[in-house]
Design brief:
The protein is an alpha+beta fold and 240 residues long. 50% of the residues lie in helices and 16% in strands. The longest helix has 19 residues, at 220-238.
């Protein structure tokens, strides 16, 4: 259940779209000019203030604009977003790139991670419960405005060296798939990040996860279906 009126939902959806596109805090004037919301800037400001009170928006330190919170993004993912459907051609192309490596688990997972990074233009990670850890796509985070802040980038890279943290994170997923956002992380410095994971079983019957690490404004409608598909592909290979 949520506590938003329809007009607030419409405004919030556009704030999230704008924030994902620009990485900048969003102001009422921008919303009024770019989106046909049918209300005045003053009304938009009032609704934004109310959504901030309810915990869906936070104030930016550097401008008068607002940023969607983890609560807002989770609401968007679960209630508002329409996942992009992978075409048959995309699925076939993905499978063809990794299928011949299925007999070698290490090479297979390494290639899976590389392909997921390329498809999502993100930093991809795969891990198994016996301690294997695979990464690909480091350069993608360096192209993201959030990671121009050296402390934010350095902290993420430090996390990647901590297998136990990555391992505990995906093991805490109750279902086969999970999204972790900002405020759900224990360490304060982890708050600008989003982790999207899918669980899998390997042919050697080890549990594992594959997913994407990035800023909280990654394109979830694209990233989520790819992460789910790659997880299911590993499961499919495991069943052969």
């Amino acid at each position: 259940m949520h506590d938003l009126k329809q007009r607030q939902i419409d405004i919030l959806k556009n704030i999230i779209k704008e924030y994902i596109d620009t990485a900048e805090p969003v102001g009422s004037e921008t919303l009024e000019k770019k989106y046909d919301l049918g209300v005045s800037p003053a009304t938009i400001r009032n609704e934004m203030a109310e959504m901030a009170r309810l915990g869906y928006l936070s104030k930016s330190h550097s401008s008068s604009g607002r940023i969607p919170t983890s609560k807002a993004l989770k609401f968007y993912i679960n209630e508002l977003m329409k996942e992009k459907e992978l075409s048959v051609a995309e699925e076939v192309e993905t499978k063809e790139k990794v299928w011949d490596l299925r007999e070698n688990e290490d090479k297979f997972l390494r290639e899976i991670t590389k392909n997921l990074a390329a498809k999502t233009k993100s930093l991809a990670v795969a891990s198994t419960e016996d301690g294997d850890l695979y990464f690909s796509g480091y350069s993608h985070i360096l192209e993201t405005p959030e990671f121009y802040d050296i402390d934010i980038a350095k902290n993420l890279l430090n996390v990647l060296d901590d297998f136990s943290y990555i391992d505990s994170l995906w093991r805490s997923i109750e279902n086969e798939f999970g999204v972790f956002l900002g405020d759900e992380f224990e360490q304060t410095l982890l708050k600008p990040y989003s982790f999207v994971f899918s669980k899998f079983h390997t042919r050697s019957n080890h549990l594992g996860s594959v997913g994407v690490l990035g800023p909280t404004r990654i394109r979830y409608e694209v990233v989520i279906p790819f992460v789910k598909y790659y997880g299911s592909l590993i499961d499919e290979v495991a069943s052969w």
